[in-house]
Amino acid sequence: MITLLIASTSAIAQPLSEEKDELSEIFEKADEISSLRSLLIQQHGELLGESFFNGRSPNRAFNIKSASKSIIGLLVGIAIEEGFIPSVDEPISTYFPEYFEENPDPKKEQITVRNLLSMQTGLRSTSSGNYGAWVMSDNWVEYALDQDFVSQIDGRMVYSTGTSHLLSVIITKAAGMSTKAFAEKFLFAPLDVTVGGWDRDPQGYYMGGNNLALKPSDMLKIGQMLIDKGVWEGEQIISMDWIIDSFKTYTYSNYNPYGYGYQWWNKRTGKYTTLFAWGHGGQYIMMIPELDAVVVMTSSVTNASRRRTYKRPVFVLLEDHIIPYLESRLELN
């Protein structure tokens, strides 16, 4: 069952009835993706349409899973801009002195905030097959820092939720407030975004890399703010410099043809570069700057597997249906 809203478009666009037909076809195609629960499409800051599947409510917050990492990346940028963190080149040992006093390791002490952001610490992953042991441990920070090196610092990507969690802890230590309080003050409140839930570790630190819950409409606000160069309702939320740095490619995934920036992914989708936050099961904030468009999708994780087969139909929908529709609107405006 589809709950559908289609917004009106400008007078010089194609007739509303035709546009409704195109959008209806997109949402019908989306409904064929059994895991999909919401789809929102926005261009030039205008909501063109949104659809909620299987009876999902627009007011329900979704666990955005690892798309939480991208939010953490934005918060690190704000913490640097506000002067809480000196720079991305600050060694992580600055924030974990007790750990390194008990576990001196000159090599690990060279790891920087930048290495955490780009998943280039070289430390063994605490995701995938190691995730369960990490979250069942009694100290997530120590467990993440205890991992052996499997690559060089600044080397290949080692995707790890524990790495993103260290960033959350650093924000808390540097700013003197919880990551949630920091996020609400500097990011969520200005955008009128409400946190629906957010897990914490055994020491009370908010999880930096998973299990943040947001409404799809709030995810859309974040994407729109970024595509508008960090500005929301006339206020500069995040500097353009940080956004540019966040969306650069520093490394590539070992498992798919995606580039990775500061906790944000990128890939070519047809003729365009899509920048996106990505969470397990199909939680996405997608931005296509060349089309001035933001697309949000949330999904059920019930049948999601580590093979991530849900990705293909999502990107087929984007490339074969959503992008041509957005292109047609550009041509007519």
Describe the structure.
By secondary structure, the protein is α+β, with helices and mostly antiparallel strands. The protein folds into two domains: 2-60 and 264-331, Beta-Lactamase, CATH 3.30.450; 67-175, no CATH class. It is 37% helix and 19% strand. The chain has helices at 16-31, 68-81, 97-102, 113-117, 131-136, 140-146, 161-175, 179-191, 216-227, 240-246, 311-331; strands at residues 2-6, 36-43, 46-53, 62-63, 197-198, 212-214, 231-232, 235-236, 251-252, 259-260, 265-269, 272-279, 283-288, 293-299. Helix 2 packs parallel to helix 7 (161-175). Residues 1-15 have low confidence and may be disordered.
Name of the top-level CATH class of the largest domain: Alpha Beta
Instruction: Write down the overall geometry.
Output: globular
Largest sheet: 9 strands, antiparallel
**E-strand count:** 14
Features:
333 residues, 2 domains, 3-stranded antiparallel sheet, 19% strand, alpha+beta, 9-stranded antiparallel sheet, Beta-Lactamase, globular
Layout of secondary structure:
Layout: E1 2-6, H1 16-31, E2 36-43, E3 46-53, E4 62-63, H2 68-81, H3 97-102, H4 113-117, H5 131-136, H6 140-146, H7 161-175, H8 179-191, E5 197-198, E6 212-214, H9 216-227, E7 231-232, E8 235-236, H10 240-246, E9 251-252, E10 259-260, E11 265-269, E12 272-279, E13 283-288, E14 293-299, H11 311-331
Antiparallel strand pairs: 1-3, 2-3, 2-14, 4-6, 5-6, 7-8, 9-10, 10-11, 11-12, 12-13, 13-14
